[in-house]
Structure to design on (463 residues):
């Protein structure tokens, strides 16, 4: 077939298209990211219905849409598929939405394929087609053997050409489609290599069209680049309905599934898993694992409460404050914003009278979590004071307040949730802001609530 070959340059970082090569991408500002890709003539670009098998390509019927009054629009409450995986249900906003396209990103080896295979195997009411362009059938079978799930409704297809995939879909009519991974797919409508920006975009478009026309949910696994973004164009994230990030340190066993975009639910939800030799296990009570089992007596450890979505979590803050041996004291933080750490240090110096400017300070949030909730501030301060004084905090104490520049203890959101969570986990004392006490009654709780207004009051209480 004589094709009119058209080429264009694409930024491999953000997907910006340009007619000629450029050193710096005008859209994302990255250097040396333009690569020439072969496109087909625009007139042969895919039409509606192209996902159907070759030879049966329906002419997309043009329907003219008219504006409707909002009350005239009717819809039926779509039946979500509730999976056996409560963590996944939560991050998706209450189960799998029919016709939704979900992109799951994560570093290599983090467990994306394991998670999707596990979901595919537990959905035994639905026919699942797991399309893999990365592994052979035997490899997938081997992985499935390790997992404690079994399903006679899960089909594996090793194929990378989208037209071939849709042909199989037409015959097998799956209820759920899993693509592992979008970067391995290629459409014969384009000549560019698999994984290039134009192919990724095109294949995603075809999958979205398929999902919307057949109301079949599609899960796409996507690779991420070394700076943590989903590989391929940023537009990919705009195109799909839901973007999930699978995070965690590959060498640690905990994995976090985070929603970064969701058209069908909240984006602040979080699912926690533990990678075991038999696959990913849901962690339904994450606070227990985030707080290390310790015998007590260690200085520099304090427990704070954070909210991830609607869920309160208790996390452990560890710090090490030691006199600096080199000229410049080091400030290192893991899982906590280093600017905020510097701010809290300044507050401790100025308002608390602690001389920390000649100390090396290392701060770590255990469990590999990245905490943005300011309610952790008080725990961070308490842990640094504890390490500085080398005086261990009581293991039954936890903290839930923000610290302001004046050393004042500030109120935070959802205080009741946090207090109840701490109580549930057996803590006996919680320090909160006195401005947070409206509506909070000590007699409702089995945990002693200490309401304080200033940082000095904390040190008076504890040390
Ligand atoms: P995988 O799902 O292949 O990662 P991805 O698709 O994100 O690249 O995960 C592979 C890692 O998980 C691998 O290092 C082995 C480990 N693993 C387990 O620890 N237990 C298991 O039961 C399985 C299936 C994998
Ligand atoms: Mg994989």
């Amino acid at each position: 077939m004589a094709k009119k070959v058209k080429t264009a340059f694409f930024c491999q970082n953000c997907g910006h298209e340009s007619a000629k090569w450029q050193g710096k991408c005008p859209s994302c500002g990255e250097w040396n990211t333009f690569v020439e890709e072969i496109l087909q003539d625009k007139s042969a670009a895919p039409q509606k219905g192209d996902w159907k098998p070759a030879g049966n390509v329906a002419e997309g019927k043009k329907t003219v849409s008219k504006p409707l009054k909002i009350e005239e629009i009717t819809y039926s409450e779509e039946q979500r598929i509730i999976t056996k995986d409560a963590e996944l249900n939560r991050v998706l906003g209450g189960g799998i939405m029919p016709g939704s396209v979900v992109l799951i990103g994560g570093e290599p080896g983090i467990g994306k394929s394991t998670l999707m295979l596990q979901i595919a195997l537990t959905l035994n009411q639905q026919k699942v087609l797991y399309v893999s362009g990365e592994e052979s059938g035997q490899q997938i079978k081997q992985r499935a053997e390790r997992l404690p799930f079994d399903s006679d409704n899960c089909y594996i297809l090793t194929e990378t050409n989208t037209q071939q995939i849709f042909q199989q879909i037409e015959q097998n009519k799956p209820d759920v489609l899993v693509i592992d991974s979008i970067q391995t797919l290629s459409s014969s409508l384009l000549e560019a290599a698999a994984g290039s920006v134009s192919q990724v975009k095109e294949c995603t478009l075809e999958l979205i069209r398929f999902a919307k026309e057949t109301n079949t949910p599609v899960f796409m696994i996507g690779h991420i680049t070394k700076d943590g973004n989903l590989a391929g164009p940023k537009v990919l994230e705009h195109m799909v309905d839901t973007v999930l990030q699978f995070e965690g340190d590959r060498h640690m066993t905990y994995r976090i599934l985070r929603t970064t975009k969701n058209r069908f639910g909240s984006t602040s939800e979080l699912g926690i898993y533990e990678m075991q030799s038999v696959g990913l296990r849901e962690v339904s009570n994450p606070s227990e694992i985030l707080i290390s089992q310790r015998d007590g007596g260690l200085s520099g450890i304090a427990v704070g409460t954070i909210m991830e979505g609607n869920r309160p979590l208790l996390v452990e803050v560890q710090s090490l404050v030691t006199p600096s041996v080199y000229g410049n004291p080091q400030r290192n933080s893991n899982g906590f914003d280093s600017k905020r750490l510097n701010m809290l240090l300044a507050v401790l110096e100025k308002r608390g009278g602690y001389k920390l400017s000649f100390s090396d300070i290392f701060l770590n949030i255990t469990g590999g979590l990245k905490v943005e909730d300011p309610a952790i501030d008080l725990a961070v301060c308490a842990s640094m004071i504890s390490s500085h004084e080398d005086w261990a905090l009581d293991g039954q104490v936890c903290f839930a307040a923000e610290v302001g520049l004046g050393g004042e203890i500030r109120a935070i959101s959802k205080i009741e949730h946090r207090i109840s969570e701490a109580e549930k986990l057996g803590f006996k004392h919680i320090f909160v802001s006195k401005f947070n006490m409206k509506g909070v009654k000590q007699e409702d709780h089995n945990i002693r609530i200490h309401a304080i207004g200033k940082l000095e009051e904390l040190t008076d209480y504890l040390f």
